[in-house]
Amino acid sequence: MSRKMSRRGFLQGAVMAAGAAAIVACRPEPTATPKEAAPEATTVPTQPAAEPVKEVVEIVVSRGEHASQPILQNAPARVAQGDAVGVKIIMQPVPGDDFGDKLNVWMATGQVPDIVRAGFTQIRDFADPDVFKPVLPLIDAHGPNLTKFLGAHPDVVGKLHMNDDLFILPSVSYNTKLLAPSPCIRKDFLEELDLPFPTTFDELYETLKEIKKAKPDCLGYTHRGGIKRLFMVLAYPYGTGLGGWMRGMHVPYWEPEESKWVYGPIRPEFKGVLEYVAKLYEEGLMDPDIATATSDLWHERNSTDRAAFSWDNFSFCVRWNIALREVSPEAAWTPFPVIAGAKGARQNDYSGFAGSGGGWCLGAGCKHPDRAIELMDFKVTPEGLDLSSWGIQNTHYTLEGNRPGSIEDYSTENLERVMDSGQRAINPDVWEEYSKRADPFRSYQSDTGTGQLDFAVLWDDAVIYSWDEPGEMDGWYEMSTNDPGLHPEVMVPSFTPEEVDRLSKIQTDVNTAIDPAIDGVVLGTVSLADFDKAVQDAIRAGAEELADIYNEAEARA
Questions:
Q1: How far is CA 530 from CA 271, 518, 524, in A?
Q2: CB 516 within 8 Å of CB 238
Q3: Are strands 181-186 and 458-460 parallel, antiparallel or unpaired?
Q4: CA distance 385 to 402
Q5: For the purposes of burial, counting CB atoms within 10 Å of the CB of 458, is it exposed (0-12), middle (13-18) or buried (19 or more)?
Q6: pTM as predicted
Q7: Distance (Å, rounded) from C-alpha 439 to C-alpha 323?
Q8: Which domains are present in the chain?
Q9: For residue 277, what is the DSSP state?
Q10: Could you read off the pLDDT of 7-65 as tens digits, one per residue?
């Protein structure tokens, strides 16, 4: 039986480990005996035994593959991380749109790979030693650096506790500029038609109408990932909600006005955003392929004059502008401040620990869990952080000054100090090569095996800004940083095993009732009266109880 540790015990252990390290660091060096006073040796000194070389083991790592950053099996930075601890990393990428379903099958059948990337909500129903290995005992034995990393984030660790242990190792970035899913528009279209930036959803509707009138071939609002994801992005700014935009499923969302979790689709306000999207679709102001548009198709359309608006990660505007400006130098996608919702409030959330998604889990069948933890422990050392973020020193980037030998304080503030991004820079010839790519930093991270979309526990986001155009993107980040309508996504609370069982049953029944009705209203195949019936079906299936369980768990957090 696995040894389990309480949250308090874990944090005490982290503090004790940090304290012990500090004591060792402060211990004075032994004073050498003067040579003339040393006794004459009478025997040949014994050489210290060399540490045994560990057998190289294979560890399979799986995650969803982002269409913009393909995962290469032998990417050099990732290979170097494995070599450092005697591990051969076998990447098992799954197309991003299919990964959620694949993970569900693995969890249901107990066939989770050695290490898998997952969101906290995704694994909630399977936080069991028969599916995933509890990681606290393993970290205690093999992860001194991970102990300090988790000890710097006690609130996060507390919320990620399930069944008295931790089944997911959270991951996060540092040196991160505030990047939220934002309204993005063709600024040059607005200037050409003498239109202001919209400030409300009604104004956005009128703006899209005017653009469509002037440019009949323009599809207007484009989106990726299907109708479900569209509402996860749009519903909350509109004034309601459909789970978090990073969660990948219809779950309760945190309602700031009421300071509680609510299930959005059964509340009256949700019909407002549903009717709004349906109107855009019916009037041809939204991509007709909204239900099936892949990321590739979305990028293709936004890289031409066929798209005018999208609500997403605004770093993609760089990619679209590079393509557009080869033909029209004045073309300009740009993000703008969050618009006011139906109630007049300006609100949107962005990911931190909550959306950076969760992190890495060990499958119950992992043959070398100690080595897997050693690998991830190395990843958060100073050398591992640079490999995870920047690539191979002197090949991909240069380092000025000295890299610290270790890190005692893993707070974001201290990481940004001791791992100063100003001392690191992409080599000029490498920078030049990737500046010509359609998506420079994602192409770089794909080729090197670095960054959030590869296999990193903790990573330096400064790398991704290396190819930003001076001035233009600085203004975008200044806008997002100073936008009072933005706030971090609220983390889901931790549930008891009994609550997990109940949530799993309710979630399936509720989604069965409500999901087809949402899609149908948008596509015009289901009436609003039929949607009202679906809402009643969802309530009977337990939608209100779903929110009650979330709030009871929140009260314990």
A1: 12, 10, 11
A2: no
A3: unpaired
A4: 14
A5: buried
A6: 0.73
A7: 10
A8: 53-176+354-487 (3.40.190.10)
A9: H
A10: 334 333 433 333 333 333 333 333 333 333 333 333 333 444 445 568 999 999 999 99
